[in-house]
What we know:
The structure holds 2 protein chains of 2 kinds. By secondary structure, chain A is mainly β. Chain A is 0% helix and 56% strand.
Amino acid sequence: QKEVxxxxxxxxxxxxxxxxxxxxxxxxxxQYFMWYRQYSRKxxxxxxxxxxxxxxxxxxxxxxxxxxxxxxxxxxxxSQPSDSATYLCxxxxxxxxxxxxxxxxxxxxxxxx
Amino acid sequence: xxxxxQNPRYQVTQFGKPVTLSCSQTLNHNVMYWYQQKSSQxxxxxxxxxxxxxxxxxxxxxxxxxxxxxTSFCFLDIRSPGLGDAAMYLCATSRDRxxxxxxxxxxxxxxx
Lengths: 113, 112
């Protein structure tokens, strides 16, 4: 079993839809949770960063962490064609020596006009 | 704007011919990382520097080396590239270990 599981997609939605992207993980020691957006042939761009459980909102993006269920989500409201990209979750914690992020494989999102 | 800059964006090399990729940062972060990313896969950490302290991942081949001459610059050396080393190479920085990391645009390496 992988430490972090993420559905590869693609997830296809119409413009304006609410998008829900999710990751599950197995290691309860993870404490820092991140979402990255990666456009084709570009480096990952940090979107959201949360510590421990709870919600964090930034514009059209909301990140949720449920440590009891080992489940994290990224919601995108009013999705735009420019949101079409691969979304990677990443996390770190004490067991990794705080040295490295463990990434999901990414979910490819396609937003059609 | 503070950022992480990778050069070149595209690199073509021949099988077995050494190649060096460079990364510079203006964020003044302590930690610099090198990742390898193949198509539709998650980034794979090769190694990182915490200041001048080098940390190699256990499964990183000896063919991959790194140098960090100062806070701002870090280099990835591939001594004898094989066809399997063709990938996107990503440099990232963070203020401290295990925290949010900031990536450069990447260098796409082709091996002929």
